[in-house]
Recover the amino acids of this structure.
């Protein structure tokens, strides 16, 4: 589940399906990155969450069916989820987790190319945050990590979603361990070679990890992801349900290579300022191996030119999803920005098809395509 509405107004009313926006952002400290020793498994290899452009066995998704969570918006959100699933299924298998009472509708809307199962119940559609984080060891081994999902700090019902990670691991038949922190997959980006990036606002936060220091969180994150260094951004506290997930603004492309979605020049709200700070932090950061970061700008759209007028809308090109042979991204109706984003993604991934989808209904919930998908990498 991604984070923000990076652009139109400096303050918001109701955002992320009814979460009350706080009065302002809270900044905590400056940039900090600490290198920690990596842990090896018993056989001497290291289980590590790979960078996302590796080959996948399948993509995991979840089917929303709650009118309480999506009042007046559910049918449109379901249509967007089905569109995303069908598009990904052109390139790799997709498994959709649906509640028994809505599985038939999910099958009807997703079509025969998507596998719908009803044995893993869900509360909502944000599989990036609720699903397992899969790791590989480079020797054919696969396991999973659970991040102890707690509804983004108990902001939403999550009794079913809290068990999605372990149930998917059981379905796949791989062991699962639980990280020594509470978090979400959208809160942590990995380069697959020892470096992570995250916002303090999502993790160094008493609604997830009360009493834990930044150093303790670094250790827990690195242990879970098979990494040794964390690049921190301050983020934005309290203005959306996720407390500013990193994956709608900054993404790793490869070890030593990152992308940051930049706001238009006239945007100066908390999220626009946060994006500019993330770019500045990455520009002076190094990887766990000491390599300087190569940081690419991805220009975001003009919120005055997009189709949606919803105050909680997320217009993030950076929240794209990599599947086998394709990049699944969004388009928002700002034709110049949409085409520029396509060109940038085509340049970054010249051997992949670029699919741009209208997911405006999902965007009113403050999320995007990366937020509703979770990859299972080939071991």
């Amino acid at each position: 589940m991604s984070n923000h509405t990076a652009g139109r107004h400096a303050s918001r009313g109701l955002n992320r399906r009814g979460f009350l926006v706080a009065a302002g952002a809270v900044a905590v400290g400056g940039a900090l990155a600490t290198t920690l020793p990596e842990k090896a498994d018993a056989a001497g290899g290291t289980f590590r969450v790979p960078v996302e452009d590796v080959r996948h066995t399948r993509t995991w998704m979840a089917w929303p069916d709650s009118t309480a969570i999506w009042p007046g918006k559910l049918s449109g959100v379901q249509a967007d989820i089905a569109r995303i699933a069908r598009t990904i299924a052109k390139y790799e298998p997709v498994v959709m987790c649906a509640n028994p009472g809505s599985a038939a509708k999910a099958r009807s809307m997703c079509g025969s190319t998507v596998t719908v199962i009803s044995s893993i119940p869900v509360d909502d559609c944000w599989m990036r945050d609720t699903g397992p984080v899969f790791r590989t060891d480079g020797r054919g081994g696969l396991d999973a990590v659970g991040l102890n999902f707690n509804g983004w700090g108990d902001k939403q019902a999550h009794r079913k979603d809290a068990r999605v990670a372990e149930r998917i691991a059981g379905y796949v038949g791989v062991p699962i361990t639980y990280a020594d922190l509470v978090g979400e997959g959208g809160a942590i980006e990995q380069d697959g070679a020892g470096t992570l990036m995250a916002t303090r606002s999502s993790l160094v936060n008493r609604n997830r990890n009360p009493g834990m220091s930044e150093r303790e969180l670094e250790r827990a994150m690195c242990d879970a992801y098979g990494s040794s260094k964390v690049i921190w951004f301050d983020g934005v506290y309290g203005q959306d349900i996720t407390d500013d997930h990193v994956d709608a603004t900054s993404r790793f492309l490869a070890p030593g290579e990152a992308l940051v979605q930049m706001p238009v020049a006239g945007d100066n709200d908390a999220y626009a300022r946060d994006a500019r700070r993330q770019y500045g932090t990455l520009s002076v950061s190094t990887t766990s191996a000491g390599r300087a970061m190569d940081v690419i700008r991805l220009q975001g759209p003009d919120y005055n030119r997009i189709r949606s007028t919803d105050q909680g809308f997320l217009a993030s090109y950076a929240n794209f999803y990599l599947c086998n042979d394709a990049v699944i991204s969004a388009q928002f109706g700002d034709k110049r920005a949409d085409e520029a984003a396509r060109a940038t993604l085509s340049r970054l991934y010249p051997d992949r098809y670029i699919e741009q989808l209208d997911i405006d209904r999902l965007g009113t919930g403050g999320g995007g395509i990366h937020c509703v998908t979770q990859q299972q990498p080939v071991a």
